[in-house]
Amino acid sequence: MTKRIPFISGNWKMHNTIAESKALAKAIADCKENKNNADIMIAPSYTSLAAVAEAVKGSKVAVAAQDVHFEEKGAFTSAVAPSQIKDAGASHVIIGHSERRSLFGDTDAILNKKVAAALKHGLTVVFCVGETLAEREADKTLGVIESQLENGLKGFTAEQLSSMVVAYEPVWAIGTGKTATPEQAQEVHASTRKYLSSKYGEDFASKVRIVYGGSVKTDNVDAIMAQPDVDGALVGGQSLVAEQFIRIINFN
């Protein structure tokens, strides 16, 4: 089996001033302990992107934008283009987070255009998928995930998606304190990998990193990361506290 490097990422959402973001980023970047040799990514607000990118320069910490628009420029008030987030120092971008889907109306078709724009500018895509509580209770989880992958990634080759990270985040477990059990996470991750294998080939599927996002904390990360198809975490609240995020990076 291909040995996949763990990918531990923090989504700071709408938190922190520029000064607070710089201090948090520096604390994470200055930590010398990374016993799993994990790739680390943090996603501050747009306003802090450039400052955070400067704060972590020369470290192993990558910087991501939390979203991106699919147009390069134009009359799109409040939107941010891929070239702008890249210019601010981001190398990664989160696309399809459940909050973007549910609160801002991002459809699979819109996300597909965002992925195209990000890839065109050489940004590494962290593509999010996940089901609602109603969908899980109706036993539709695996079908929902496959549909989101099918439609969101439509038209791209395995080569184009070679650097992509997939983040499984059950909507019912985001910001609720609820977490999928390690077994539930493993089931979805394994199914996702199987789908990607059927679509892009076994070699691609064995290498792509599928991370779990959904109330990942210091007290559950070890059990989650012990699952064979869980390659990392997309962390919310506890990525805002350096000590907690560093403990998650150094999962056992």
The neighbouring-strand order within the major sheet is: 7-6-5-4-3-2-1-8
CATH topology: TIM Barrel
- Full CATH superfamily name: Aldolase class I
How helix-rich are the residues, as a percent range?
A: 40-55%
Sheet with the most strands, sense and barrel status: 8 strands, parallel
Structural class by helix and strand composition: alpha/beta
Coarse morphology: globular
Q: Give the total of beta strands.
A: 8
The helix tally amounts to: 11
What percent strand? Answer: 5-15%
Assigned CATH class: Alpha Beta
Reading the helices and strands in chain order gives: EHEHEHEHHEHHEHHEHEH
Multimerization state? single chain
Cα-based radius of gyration, to the nearest Å: 17 Å
How many domain regions? 1
CATH architecture: Alpha-Beta Barrel
Low-confidence stretches: none
Amino-to-carboxy terminus distance: 21 Å
**Average pLDDT number:** 96
EC number: 5.3.1.1
Keywords: Cytoplasm, Gluconeogenesis, Glycolysis, Isomerase
Pathway: Carbohydrate biosynthesis; gluconeogenesis; Carbohydrate degradation; glycolysis; D-glyceraldehyde 3-phosphate from glycerone phosphate: step 1/1
Protein name: Triosephosphate isomerase
